[in-house]
Write a structure and sequence with these properties.
The protein has no helices and ten strands.
Length: 116
């Protein structure tokens, strides 16, 4: 039974920071490329960031232009955990944030980020 459980969302003011976490179980986390995606009310799902499953020396991360320079995706394979550090938050970053495997086969239940 695969579970991706996000946490760390909340209400912040513009310019503040949040760190999201996603704990995986039921999968070999270290073997999966992972992503963060988000969906704001009335809008389509937007890919935010992705990170490869490669060993840290070779690991690569990529970002949507809208978050580049402000968000950092990372992972701790020993803890089966994916992170998203979000700095300089803007009102347009408000959304439900989901972690997912890169293929989209598995998604978490989401954590809400409100910027106001």
């Amino acid at each position: 039974h695969v579970q991706l459980v996000e946490s760390g969302g909340g209400l912040v003011q513009p310019g503040e920071s949040l760190r999201l976490s996603c704990v995986a179980s039921g999968i070999t986390f270290s073997r999966h490329d992972m992503s963060w995606v988000r969906q704001a009310p009335g809008k389509e799902v937007e890919w935010v960031a992705g990170i490869t499953s490669l060993p840290s020396l070779f690991r690569a991360a990529s970002y949507a232009d809208s978050v580049k320079g402000r968000f950092t995706i990372s992972r701790d394979n020993a803890k089966d955990t994916l992170y998203l550090q979000m700095n300089s938050l803007k009102s347009e970053d408000a959304a439900m944030y989901y972690c997912a495997t890169w293929t989209g086969n598995y998604w978490g239940q989401g954590t809400q980020v409100t910027v106001s």
